[in-house]
Amino acid sequence: MIDTGGSGRLWLLSGPGSAYALQVTDRDELLHLHWGAPIALPDAEALAAEPPPAERPFESALDGREEYPVEGGPRFVRPALSVRSEHGGEGPGGDGPVRGTEWCFEEDEIAAGPDGEELRLHFHDSLHHLDLTLHYRLRPACDVVERWITAGHVGHAGTPALELLRADAATWTLPHRPAWRMSQLHGRWGAETQLARAPLAPGEHVIGSRRGHTSHQHLPWFALDEGEAGEEHGQVWSGALAWSGSWRIAIAALPGGRVQVTGGAGHDDAGLVRLTPGGGYTSPVFAGLYSAGGFGAASRAWHAYQRDHVLPGGPPHTAPLRPVAYRPGPPAGPSAPAAATAHGAGAAAAPGPDLAQHRELARRAAQMGVELYVVDACRGSLFGAQEGSARGGGRPGGSLPGGGPLKEFADEVHGLGMRLGVRVEPETVEPGGDLHRAHPDWVQRQPGRRGAEQAGRLVLNLARPDVLAHVAGELDALLHGAPVDHLAWDVSRSFTEAGWPGDRYPQRLWTGHVHGLYALFDRLRAAHPDLTVESGAGGGGRTDLGVLARVGQVETSATTDPLDRLAVQHGFSQLHPASAMSAPVTAGRAPGPNHRGASMRFRFVTAMAGVLGLDGDLLEWGAHKRAEAASWIALYKSVRPVVHDGDLYRLRPPGDGGVSAVQYVLGDDTVVLAWLQAQRFGEPAAPLRLRGLQPGAAYRDVATGVVRRGAVLAEHGLRTTLGGDLDAAVFHLRRG
């Protein structure tokens, strides 16, 4: 609900458990009033009536109070908006380009629709001929506030162009507190989404990506608390940026205990977009959430928001369940490189199975309960150096590596009761390949500089309409040439020489490439409504709300080491739901990065916390192992609806070497996944105190028939009988 007060210049956005308030003063200053626990409109008006802070030398009373700081005037915080006119003929004296913004408030709009209520605040800078609109949207029965901006050049023809050096989506202002603690997700390739929490020191803490994609190193998410919040108690403020390219989020701890968080597309202030008269720019969404129930309640709210309003496929409980996928790895042998058995980057370098092996692998996979068979028919890239080779994989819709028409094999896979997926890499090209030779200008490059190859690839410029049209045509040819049901979309390298020779404003490549990528995803969904897509970048290098709105599922990490995966999945769950997280089990002799063995039980229970899948070489598994894997897949399918759509409770985090566990609650069903890393001194594993249950209700263990009351499970816990090293178990309880 959005209420208006303060003579039409104050607004209060109210969710089920939160409130957000802001006002425009008589001097057209847009000030933040409140973000936190629910308040009423008179409370917001009382906050607006409080006197401003006292003026101090060399400081600004606006700093830390503005809703969207702009460059110019008495401001010393990081600006969210930085504008430069291309020519200064209309400025005072015509002395060259003019920077900064001096806006006037024009009007507000409140629009209601099926997506919720939206507040629009319209401002205008007459010198720049710039219209700026700040957008705020509340979804129904949701505490997430979505914020973004739109900017438009409204000058007449011949008016000088404008350069948006920086146009962030939002600045979030937190209340005064004595101290703050920051949570973030960091890592590297093969070790993504590691959760880190530390006190926030005075000054700025900046996270982001300069790589052209979201990156393995940082996710565009933050959480802030007073240092006392726990999993199920305390106030938590968090935010997530819906953007799949380079980005930046700056967390500033200002004097007086106030914090501001500013974020948006682009990694620096060198220039975002050039606007000519009639041109416009829309920022990505920067969503924010206040929770009074600790980090667990915040995660559950983020998960519900994504299931209800972000992920494609329909509302939760009605959307098709994510299938169990199998992606064959290279056949094992003395000459097979170790990297070839890893999931993600590196795998594309090794030759894959031939047609006969694919047929046998598909038969075995179907017998085990696999629902989606994914081939590297376009191995390493959609555009190979020699179409028809094992590396190039044939023209889209053509042949499998090792021979055999893709369409014929797709029919065989469908006949086994599975869907067919194809792994593609449409954003890169092989140096010297047919496409590169024909169109060298389609590759990102800086004139006069050597282009750096990574993973034997160069990056295409998807900001170019001709490149975008070509890639879309190749994808259409693939999907029309064979009955393909799924695309596993990968990219094996980051941007380096991100140039666009000959373009008037080459910096636009950074945002234009992402908009091109989104256009491809949107076109695929419109033209092939039954097609599903999984996005990856050598593992977890492209994980964010922007890509999830178009694909619904992402690769989480290149590692399939189950112990490492517990930490990766723990971090991933802070923001994203289980239904978005690919979680493969590697078949065969792949040792993983730690050369650590683990039981089938431990590996499968770890993968059950997301979208369970398989990769590697099933030919190495004998009948006994395949039967065991089939039993785990069947168990997973029985609990999959609860894991994917249920409320998550992180009962115990991984990392201390003992028991860790997660719990999912959906209606009458509760599922607990528990892991024991190592038993010490023969001590039994501590019972797990469950959450989210009705105290007076009876809960029956589906496997054993044992019945316990919710109050007993909450107070005395669930006994797991885990023991030894790397043990795991699944518990399915049903109420009634």
Features of this protein?
Immunoglobulin-like, 3 domains, alpha+beta, single chain, 8-stranded parallel sheet, 10-stranded antiparallel sheet, TIM Barrel, Beta-galactosidase, Chain A, domain 5, 736 residues
Any overview of this molecule?
The protein is an alpha+beta fold and 736 residues long. Helix 7 (509-527) packs parallel to helix 8 (545-551). It has three domains: 2-51 and 58-310, Beta-galactosidase, Chain A, domain 5, CATH 2.70.98.60; 326-431 and 464-643, Aldolase class I (TIM Barrel, Alpha-Beta Barrel), CATH 3.20.20; 652-735, Immunoglobulin-like (Sandwich). Residues 333-349 and 384-396 have low confidence and may be disordered. Helix content is 20%, strand content 29%. The strands form seven sheets. Strands 6, 7, 8, 9, 12, 13, 15, 16, 20 and 21 form a ten-stranded antiparallel sheet that branches. An eight-stranded parallel sheet has the order 29-28-27-24-23-22-31-30. The longest helix is centred in the last third of the chain and has 23 residues, at 623-645.
- Work out the strand percent: 25-35%
Overall, the morphology is globular
Averaging pLDDT over every residue, what do you get?
A: 90
Q: What is the CATH homology-level superfamily of the largest domain?
A: alpha-galactosidase from lactobacil brevis
Helix content: 10-25%
Assign the CATH topology of the largest domain.
Beta-galactosidase, Chain A, domain 5
State the domain count.
3
Number of helices: 12
- Biggest sheet statistics: 10 strands, antiparallel
Query: Kindly, what is the distance between the CA atoms of the first and last residues, rounded to a whole number of angstroms?
Result: 37 Å
